[in-house]
Amino acid sequence: MQLFKVESEYFSGEVKVIYPTKVFSDHRGAFSVTYRADEAKDIGLPEFVQDNCSTSVAGVVRGLHFQLDPPMGKLMRVTRGTGLLVAVDIRPESPTFLQWVGIEASEQNRRQVWAPARFARGFSAFTDIEVQYKCTNHFNADSDYAIRWDDPRIGVEWGVDTPILSDRDEHAPTVSEYFWRTQ
Q1: Is-catalytic flag, 133?
Q2: Contact at 8 Å (CB) between 79 and 103?
Q3: Which of 35, 133, 138, 178 is catalytic?
């Protein structure tokens, strides 16, 4: 039985939107399998070593974050509320450099977004939200980077009128500042 499958792919299949094919519902609620290693491998996902959970109030924008050493990919999903999961191609050699995709995800639609290493990721909260994500590597604070959430060279449409930001995200470097500084 196939428990989840790829709904759509972006950036030549690098970024995937995944959803469960079987949701068992009754008067008590619902159950679905959100991850299974053998099926994940069949659709091209790697092994994961760390799970994280983030909660945010409506209006929060988090991102755009990435980690390079060790490189980290993330499988993101919304387990409470509704929001936009975002992935941005930050591979300078890529023909899709600085292009982005945003997927509306919710506890109801159960969509998950896979974004591999060398993609910046973030999300916005349309409602109070809980986002869980599986990571391909352990977190390394010394290699945790951010680029500006509203960089006009990227142009993410977050769907939030007045974003609530962390100090880090509000003052993150632009793409030009980041890539010029790191060369």
Answers
A1: yes
A2: no
A3: 133
Whole-angstrom distance, CA of residue 151 vs CA of residue 169 = 11
49-181 to CATH, choices 1.20.1250.20, 2.60.120.10, 2.140.10.10, 1.20.1050.10: 2.60.120.10
* Alpha helices per DSSP H over 13-136: 37-42
Give the domain ranges of the chain: 49-181
Contact between 75 and 130 under an 8 Å Cβ cutoff? The reply is no
How far, in Å, CA of 125 to CA of 119, rounded? 20
pTM above 0.85, yes or no: yes
CA 164, 51, 64, 8 torsion: positive or negative?
A: negative
C-alpha R_g of the chain: 16
Cα–Cα distance for residue pair 179/166, rounded to 1 Å: 22
- Determine whether 27 is an active site residue: no
Q: Among 65, 138, 145, 171, which one carries the catalytic annotation?
A: 65
pLDDT band at residue 30 using 50, 70 and 90 as cut-offs: confident
